[in-house]
Write a structure and sequence with these properties.
With about 120 residues, the protein is mainly β. The protein is built from no helices and 11 strands.
């Protein structure tokens, strides 16, 4: 059974930093492209970043580029998201996810964890 467990969220002030982690199990983690996605209150899922299997390539949404850094440790089957210069608009429930597609303009992921809440105060 695929399991993804996020941690590291919290309340932080504008300009602050947080590091999210995601522990994966139930599948061969190293073989998969992984993503971070987020959901703000009343909104749909939003793609944040992706990382290739092996970690050789990363991609970021324009809204977080230059502020967020995604990485992975395949030996530990763990995904990370380093978030710096946080803004109130980054407030959301953050999920690590696998097998995501966009259908009818909406992002959907076959697997994601329970999420970790990030709240940025102004």
């Amino acid at each position: 059974e695929v399991q993804l467990v996020e941690s590291g969220g919290g309340l932080v002030q504008f300009g602050g930093s947080l590091r999210l982690s995601c522990a994966a199990s139930g599948f061969t983690f190293s073989r998969y492209v992984m993503k971070w996605v987020r959901q703000a209150p009343g909104k749909g899922l939003e793609w944040v970043s992706s990382i290739t299997s092996g970690g050789t390539g990363t991609w970021y949404a324009d809204s977080v580029k230059g502020r967020f850094t995604m990485s992975r440790d395949d030996a530990k089957a763990t995904l990370y998201l380093e978030m710096n210069s946080l803004k109130p608009e980054d407030t959301a429930l953050y999920y690590c996810a696998r097998d995501c597609v966009t259908r009818n303009g909406r992002l959907a992921c076959d697997y994601r964890g329970q999420g970790t809440q990030v709240t940025v105060s102004s």
